[in-house]
Amino acid sequence: DAGVTQSPTHLIKTRGQQVTLRCSPKSGHDTVSWYQQALGQGPQFIFQYYEEEERQRGNFPDRFSGHQFPNYSSELNVNALLLGDSALYLCASSLRSGPTDTQYFGPGTRLTVL
Amino acid sequence: QKEVEQNSGPLSVPEGAIASLNCTYSDRGSQSFFWYRQYSGKSPELIMSIYSNGDKEDGRFTAQLNKASQYVSLLIRDSQPSDSATYLCAVEGSARQLTFGSGTQLTVLP
User: Fold this and answer.
1) Is residue B91 within 8 angstroms of chain A, CB to CB?
2) For residue A91, which phi and psi values (nearest 5 degrees)?
3) Which of A36, B3, B5, B33 has the maximum number of C-beta atoms within 10 A of its C-beta?
4) Are A45 and A58 in contact (CB under 8 A)?
5) Does the distance separating the beta carbons of B32 and A45 come in below 8 Å?
């Protein structure tokens, strides 16, 4: 049973560039949530996708956008990168039809903005 | 702003002792609560979920929930050096997003 996968593992970009991160959910899951984790902090919710639509969004600017594909995989796009966007980006998958959304995390993508 | 607060730590306990990790939350309507463990440089790993008031035990781990006091705790019995990690408390919001505390770093000393 494949768990949540993310790519790439590490990424280095410069300010102003754009980046795309990818996530494949755990087998049988239909919902993908994205989180940003700065060093020494807990993960911060960015947004959640279900049925190819953004269902909920945290306090992140429009530079952060996403997409969910028919196979439930998802992308996170960040435009006009800032130094402060350097963080671990986590994807979590869950099954929306359950009584609660127990979320399982992928290994994360470490983004460094220079 | 819905908040989740954890005891700041770091917390050190000797091997074999009980480690106690605490968490309070502000959203009185929250119904689902989770504890994740995160090793340095790794992603969070789910270790416990709890939905009802009282205790829930799973091996050496016990989660405790008191919705009236808006308080969640995690007890780790017979702590092992391999338990050394950051423990994250997470609360599920009405839209099923998770709000995390900043984590408590636990070190179990051999």
Assistant:
1) no
2) -110, 140
3) B33
4) yes
5) no
| Option in A41, A94, A104 nearest B102 (CB) | A41
Which 3 state secondary structure label does DSSP give B99? strand
Confirm if A48 and A56 have CB atoms less than 8 A apart: yes
Compute CA B1 distance to the chain's CA centroid, rounded to the nearest angstrom.
20
Say yes or no: B109 contacts chain A, CB-CB below 8 A: no
**Among A33, A56, A105, beta carbon nearest to B44:** A105
Residue type, B2: K
CB proximity list for A58: less than 8 A, separation 6 or greater? A44, A45, A46, A47, B97
List, for residues A53-100, the tens digit of each pLDDT value: 999 999 999 999 999 999 999 999 999 999 999 999 999 999 987 677
Judge whether A31 and B90 are in contact, CB under 8 Å.
Answer: no
How many residue contacts between A and B have a Cβ separation below 8 Å?
63
pLDDT given for residue A90 in this prediction: 98
DSSP 8-state class, residue B59: T
Output the CA–CA distances (angstroms, integers) from residue B100 to A36, A44, B4, B87, in the order listed: 11, 7, 6, 10
Q: Does B44 touch chain A (CB under 8 A)?
A: yes
What digits encode the pLDDT tens for the residues B52-66? 999 999 999 999 999
